[in-house]
Amino acid sequence: MTEDRQIQFRVHADWQPDAATFNQLLELFEQTAFWAKNRRSEDWRIAIANSKPIVTVWDHDRLIGFARATSDGIFRATIWDVVIHSDYQGAGLGRKLVETVLMHPHVNSVERVYLMTTHQQKFYERIGFQPNSTTTMVLHNQPISQAHLPMAIESHRSTLKGC
Questions:
Q1: Percent of the chain topping pLDDT 90
Q2: Which one of 23, 65, 125, 140 has the largest count of C-beta atoms within 10 Å of its C-beta?
Q3: pLDDT, the chain, mean
Q4: pTM
């Protein structure tokens, strides 16, 4: 890395990026993350609003890295969307980014931390993650109407009142 770089990690509990920062985030993912290409900006806003923590990496005022997590705070957490701009890869920033997420109080005391990766298994193994063949199920969820559910929520609530 050149001497004029000033790398800074920022941990956000409730990140609400301004328009310019949000555009940098969208560009970062379009440029460096095949799995995030063509995600809608409205969907990104929902994902960000429901994530804690969010960690960003900056070189001066340029967004160069991002990761987020979701967690119940005690049993499980999942790390999502880890990315470092390709111009900055190979300098240990990705490792520090993941470790910063793992150190956050909302993540560091859970029993298990999960993440999904397509091509970076070796990178995550060096941080301490292990392959897990026991939790490989996925549901490609589609919105469904309540009419298809076996029990309407309202009738379920009235049953619970009698308990």
A1: 60
A2: 65
A3: 86
A4: 0.80
- Burial of 66: CB neighbours in 10 Å, binned 0-12, 13-18, 19+: buried
> How far apart, in Å, are the Cα atoms of 144 and each of 141, 152, 157, 162?
9, 13, 20, 29
Entry field: residues in the chain: 163
- Burial bucket for residue 118 (CB in 10 Å: 0-12, 13-18, 19+): exposed
Residue 163 confidence (pLDDT) above 60: no
Q: Please answer whether residues 62 and 72 qualify as being in contact, where contact means their C-beta atoms are separated by less than 8 angstroms.
A: no
State how beta strands 7-12 and 112-115 pair: unpaired
Nearest to 2 by CA among 92, 97, 88, 84: 88
Q: How far apart are the first and last CA of the chain?
A: 64
